[in-house]
Amino acid sequence: MGNIITAKNIVKRYSKHVALNDVSFTVPQGTIYGLLGPNGAGKTSMIRIINQITAPDSGEVLFNNEKLAPYHTTQIGYLPEERGLYKKMKVGEQALYLARLKGMDKADAMAKLKEWFIKFDIASWWEKKVEDLSKGMQQKVQFIVTVLHQPKLLILDEPFSGFDPINIEIIKNELLRLKKEGVTIILSTHNMSSVEELCDNITLINQSKAVLEGNVNELRHRFKLHVWEVKFQGTEDSVRNALAGKYELLEIYPENSLTVAKIKIPEDIHSNDLLKTLLPACSIVNFSEILPSMSEVFISAVTRTNPSK
Amino acid sequence: MSKISLIIQREYTTRVRKKSFLVISILGPLLFAGIIFVPAFLASTKNENQRIVVVDETKSLCGSLEGNATVHYDYGYCNIGINEVKKIFADSSHASVLYIHKTEQLQQVQLYSKDDPGLDVVSAIEAQLNTIMEKAKMKAENLDQATIDKVKSNISVQDIVNNQETNAGYNMALGYAGSFFIYLFILLYSIQVMRGVMEEKTNRIVEVIISSVRPFQLMMGKVIGVGLVGLTQFLIWVVLGFGVYSAGSAYFQAQEINPKNAAMEQTYKTGTPINNINTPGVKIEKKDMSRSFDNLDNMLRSTNWVLVIGGLLFYFLGGYLLFSALFAAVGSAVDQDTDTQQFMLPVTSPLVLSIVVMGSIITNPHSTMAVWFSIIPLTSPIAMMARIPFGIPVWQLALSMSLLVASIFGTVWLAGRIYRVGLLMYGKKATYKELGKWIFYK
């Protein structure tokens, strides 16, 4: 499958600062793509460029290998971070309006809306005014409106904020279902656990530059600290003695009837050598590598690229 | 259906469905009509039953005051002393007691009333007494009625401009009303556009919408949608206005020939002995309202309504497009109501300035200042509307209109540039310098 989005050397300047400085990345079709970065890094600027809300000063964005054009907006569903609805308008009427702005005809939009309203168990809200809805309820309506016109690309900026855990689960499942149907999703979020859970690939933008791009699992391996966790039966001292001089014991503590040790191995030594060293000292129950979480990857990549103070 | 028409539709229907729209649509013309007709209506109906007891110590005036639609004189107590009459009066259905002292020249006359009799009644009595006195004096000087009629003059200057009869006062009123109307409508609806833009921005719905449509489409959709609301209101007012006017005119015409009224007059006359004194002043008083209405009617018929209504439409729409675009830009540049002040002042000042100089324009509609104000686009909608009833050279009208149209395009373009950037700027207060930069953003 090809790439649905190809961003090439995007530069966007505002009067006082550069929001995006030569940012390039590609989003493969049918995947969930994380667009990560600290606040003010330039994520929203990038998302707005893909949505054709603003134009880059230089560089170009390809949508399915075509230069981005106004008609592409009907193939994109966008849930911005700053989102709201007309407060005085009725829910159903408003959803219908927003759907038609995305190019759906009235009857089609009506039929699909009814389906989604039943699916999300909100059919009774149709005639209610938006201002009578809670924030979480409004978020549901907004999500429906974003996906209603069956876009090929969904761009969600902090989609989980404002939802309770139950609704976060509902939305996550919807996203996974949409991915199965072949929809590509660009997810911008600070919620790193959801990145690990959902995203296939990510780009990390920091200080207007793309500092990290790649597959989530590969990145976790790339940022690994060569730390292994060993669960064993035996005495702490025998393990300590076996490791002495060769390996660094980071932590050792009892867990239930077992003992857990976290051991760092030098980069040039294979994990099998550690195993060999440990085998005579204890009876090993579990031996596994500790991969950094995405949030550790995030922090380490960001601090690495930030100039030291 | 194209996206911009969807936006127009939403802007239009959400506003027209509001109760306030209905209320203003109906109350507006009623209010205007009320200002014109209600005083007249009250004057012609209120005092119908003002029965006045006449106590005349001179004895010479008993029966000589003539009743009319508003006043009915009762001479049954003419010869009874004032103190006794006052006692009876307290329990009677009479409104007032007219007490004429016995003096040489009728100088002492008093009117005792239960309620304030109103200016109309008092002045009617005064006019009658004066007429009676004048006639008596003239008779004493040996002037007969024929001579008096000969001496009387009634000069009225006919105002003819370019072979057309006009009336300066009436034109002033029309110019004033027209330009004030334009001012009101431009301000009312441009502010609605600004509020709409701010609503979208502060509700944070705007980013969703401009991911579907271009900001310019959203802005124009709003401007056109709200403009159509204004136009609808305008048409409702015109239709209702003519409706109310026709009803009013029918009412006053019916009054004039109402047989019941004539019969009533007859009873007043027959019930009382009348000295055969002609009192023309009183008659004019009585028919004043319907007569001035006739005058109004004639003037209204002399107006070139196609030009006035057409001018109103053109300058309302033109001025509205010009200013609403500016107001939309202002709305996009701010986060809160309070921040609008700094930008509102320069945007509204041409409107306020036009209204300020409008007074001098209608008194001197062809002065250099009036001409320039009516040609420069930001002031022309109001200034030109003030001048239109006086007749405008075609070249001035054409120049004013084409400059207005040209500047609409310029302003809308400029406003669109500011609007598209301003919409997504949150948190910081924009300065004029920044607005200038926004225009040149890519």
Q: What fraction strand of chain B?
A: 5-15%
Distance between the termini of chain B: 29 Å
- What's the CATH first level of the largest domain in chain A? Alpha Beta
How many distinct beta strands of chain B?
A: 6
Order of the strands making up the biggest sheet of chain A: 6-7-8-3-9-10
Strand order of the largest sheet of chain B: 2-1-3-4
The CATH level-2 architecture of the largest domain in chain A is identified as 3-Layer(aba) Sandwich
Mean pLDDT across the residues of chain B is: 79
The quaternary state of the protein chains shown equals heterodimer
Q: Quote the beta fraction of chain A.
A: 25-35%
Number of helices of chain A: 10
The major β-sheet of chain B equals:
4 strands, mixed
**What structural class should be given to the helix and strand makeup of chain B?**
alpha/beta
Description:
The complex is a heterodimer of chains A (about 300) and B (about 450). Chain A has 2 domains: about 5-90 and about 135-220, 3-Layer(aba) Sandwich (Rossmann fold); about 225-290, Alpha-Beta Plaits. Helix content of chain A is about 35%, strand content about 30%. Chain A has 10 helices and 14 strands. In chain A, a hairpin with a 2-residue loop joins β4 and β5. In chain A, α2 crosses α3 (about 105-120). Chain A is elongated, with a radius of gyration of 24 Å. Chain A starts with a strand and ends with a helix. With about 450 residues, chain B is of the alpha/beta class. Chain B folds into 2 domains: about 5-35 and about 165-250 and about 300-440, no CATH class; about 50-150, Periplasmic binding protein-like II (D-Maltodextrin-Binding Protein, domain 2), CATH 3.40.190.10. Chain B contains 16 helices and 6 strands. Chain B has helices spanning about 5-15, 20-45, 80-90, 120-140, 145-150, 170-200, 205-210, 215-255, 260-270, 280-300, 305-335, 340-365, 370-375, 380-385, 395-420, 430-440; strands spanning about 50-55, 70-75, 95-100, 110-115, 160, 165. In chain B, the strands form 2 sheets. A 4-stranded mixed sheet of chain B has the order 2-1-3-4. In chain B, strands 5-6 form a two-stranded antiparallel sheet. Chain B is elongated, with a radius of gyration of 31 Å. Chains A and B meet through β6 and α2 of A and α1 and α7 of B.
